[in-house]
Amino acid sequence: MASRKTSQPNRENGDKYSVLLPTYNERENLPLIVWLLVKYFGESGYNYEIIVIDDGSPDGTLEMAVQLQNIYGEDKILLRPREKKLGLGTAYIHGMKHATGNFIIIMDADLSHHPKFIPEFIEKQKEGNYDLVSGTRYQGDGGVYGWDLRRKLISRGANFLTQVLLRPGASDLTGSFRLYKKKVLESLMERCVSKGYVFQMEMIVRARQLNYTIGEVPISFVDRVYGESKLGGNEIVSFVKGLLTLFATT
Q1: 15 Cβ partners below 8 Å, 6+ apart?
Q2: What is the β-pairing status of strands 103-106 and 178-181?
Q3: Which among 147, 115, 113, 117 has a CA at the least distance from the CA of 229?
Q4: Cα angle vertex 188, ends 185, 192, to 5°?
Q5: Nearest-5° Cα angle at 187, 181 to 192
Q6: What are the pLDDT digits (tens) for 125-155?
Q7: pTM for this prediction
């Protein structure tokens, strides 16, 4: 696994990385995740932009994003809000319409995904010219921190069932920290029909069907620092239904 570079090289290779940050009630987390993104992109020298897609957060997330845009500049922080919660998949589609990079990075805004791994994602992609690179909690020195036993069992069980039924060719299907070639992500989004937590899983399964190449980077997943987890009973039921649907149709 490639190590993160701490120097500030000038990388004039034409590549640009658009980070999509869908948010809902992330006022406390957003300043930290943006600061970390600016820090690690700045140290690694890659060209980037951060696109915040807020779905009408009542806690003032958008107002915080405006302040961050004033600090870091409109060229680095793009605000593309929506009036209400419309789903993760449509948030990515909305963000991609405004992305100027030829690579797209998707990640959670709640600090579960640390930006320090992004240079490793980029180096991995270049190493094998992969169509997508996925963060994995289940290979190498990857892991999960801050979850109780129930949450760990749910995640491991979901991943195991998916591996058995779908044989996707990737070790972590339910994660949402990934780097895509923009054209690849657009192609996958056109074919994806799932919503909620099944969405990320279907993206990998569709990638396998289309013979896209997948690289993996071990990551440490840390439970959100502020706010409440959005995983509940309804999401678990939806996941099982979606898994069975994919098994029957792929």
Answers
A1: 46, 47, 101, 102, 103
A2: antiparallel
A3: 147
A4: 130
A5: 120
A6: 999 999 999 999 888 888 777 767 776 676 7
A7: 0.83
